[in-house]
């Protein structure tokens, strides 16, 4: 049996992946917010059609199976509009968790951002602070978002990575 091949693509390069990544994000982050799935699907289709680094959705593939997604967003935290860009919507399918895939995906997004001259990324998380810390992210502060506490984290990027 051949070893699994991993690579990161984007929904701009593979628009057929936009609906599945949108559904993942809706189920993980928006289902309980009242935002309809159709709104998230429409946004994903627009993002896939616009090849810009900001508002770019990345997809981790194992062989040709999509197993994770993450986005670069110009703004994703209403409480801190001064922070940009943000790593957002990081999601790994349940059957692929705990196998280092989140690191593979995040490192690929960081490298793409650094290669584009972005010096720093931000994110906020309520559940994965330790995972990000292990990957070199630093907690900057705690913030309230939607009435819940979140760790606000940053990562300085090596240029030309």
Mean pLDDT: 91
Cα end-to-end separation: 32 Å
What string gives the helices and strands in order?
A: EHHEEEHEHEE
- How many E-type strands? 7
Q: Structural class given helices, strands, pairing?
A: alpha+beta
Largest sheet: 4 strands, antiparallel
CATH hierarchy: architecture:
3-Layer(aba) Sandwich
Radius of gyration: 15 Å
Residues in helices, as a percent range: 25-40%
Question: Your description of this structure?
Answer:
Helix 1 (18-30) crosses helix 2. This protein has a single domain (6-156), classed as 3-Layer(aba) Sandwich (Aminopeptidase). The protein is built from 4 helices and 7 strands; from the N terminus they run βααβββαβαββ. It is α+β, with helices and mostly antiparallel strands and 161 residues long. The longest helix is centred in the last third of the chain and has 15 residues, at 101-115.
